[in-house]
Design a protein that fits this description.
- The protein is of the alpha+beta class and 265 residues long.
- The protein is built from five helices and nine strands.
- Strands 2, 4, 7, 8 and 9 form a five-stranded mixed sheet that branches. A four-stranded antiparallel sheet has the order 1-3-6-5, with no helix packed on it.
- The protein is elongated.
Length: 265
């Protein structure tokens, strides 16, 4: 009887220690306390082996530990909406909630960075007189009144050391119709000028390449016919040969020259 009493006392102490470490399983541990009390009474009246009771309790604690690990692994923080675009002077609100709303209370903090990629661990919690924060039951809300352009950025929710996915806020200024028309006119001019430059970049190389081809064709063109030696061709010398032959065959004609040989001297 003393051994059973000692074992039951130790099991009650162990359950109390686990109840302090696992804050989100109070109801389940309360049921275990009731089970221990029932076991204590039944051991007193019924002869049950001590080893069987120990095995059952160890299996129960092991299953409880597995449930705790599974819940901790699946803990995620969700933010809604993911993007918010408003004009100056409006009010916006963000919501932050956990994947499991039955875990009890949570500590919710809001942070702001200028752009994605900045180190979130070095930034400070959001503090602004126009910002109102509410939290409770694994939920958190953030409201910003009379938003300004400088309020644009990325807002992150941190719940129980777990970061949310972030919400981007963009604040736009109100523009007058004349200002909008002027901006559109300037955009049209810039687009037209860009198109004109593109046309020049296409046409100028084509014209230059065409002129270059024309110069190459002019350099390698066949030269004009030269008439310098045209009278020396055989076809044009026929009349001259005929005149010389006729002159040599005339016996009455006196030779205008005489040929002397060295023997005639």
């Amino acid at each position: 009887y003393r051994e059973v009493h000692t074992f039951i006392s130790l099991s009650l102490s162990l359950s109390l220690f686990l109840s302090l470490s696992l804050t989100h399983t109070h109801s389940l541990l309360y049921e275990i306390h009731l089970i221990h009390t029932v076991v204590y009474v039944r051991v007193f009246w019924v002869n049950v082996r001590l080893n069987e009771i120990m095995n059952y309790i160890l299996v129960g604690y092991f299953l409880l530990l597995l449930v705790n690990l599974a819940v901790s692994a699946d803990f995620q923080v969700q933010q809604k909406p993911r993007f918010y675009g408003v004009k100056v002077g409006k009010q916006v609100g963000f919501t932050c909630s956990a994947s499991d709303l039955t875990l009890g209370q949570a500590v919710v903090m809001w942070y702001k960075i200028e752009k994605y990629g900045d180190d979130k661990d070095r930034i400070r919690p959001l503090e602004n007189r126009r910002v109102v924060q509410h939290s409770g039951n694994m939920k958190g809300q953030l409201f910003i009144r009379n938003v300004e352009v400088k309020d644009s950025g990325i807002y992150y929710c941190k719940m129980n050391q777990t970061w949310g996915l972030g919400t981007e806020l963009q604040v736009f200024r109100r523009s007058k119709p004349k200002v909008i028309e002027r901006r559109n006119y300037m955009k049209d001019i810039i687009i037209f000028f860009q198109g004109f430059l593109i046309m020049l970049c296409v046409i100028i190389p084509l014209v230059w390449y065409y002129r270059l081809e024309q110069k190459e064709e002019a350099v390698y063109e066949e030269p004009e016919h030269d008439h310098t030696y045209e009278g020396l061709e055989i076809e044009h010398c026929g009349d001259l040969y005929e005149d010389l032959t006729a002159f040599s065959q005339n016996p009455d004609a006196e030779a205008s020259w005489e040929i002397e040989s060295p023997e005639q001297e």
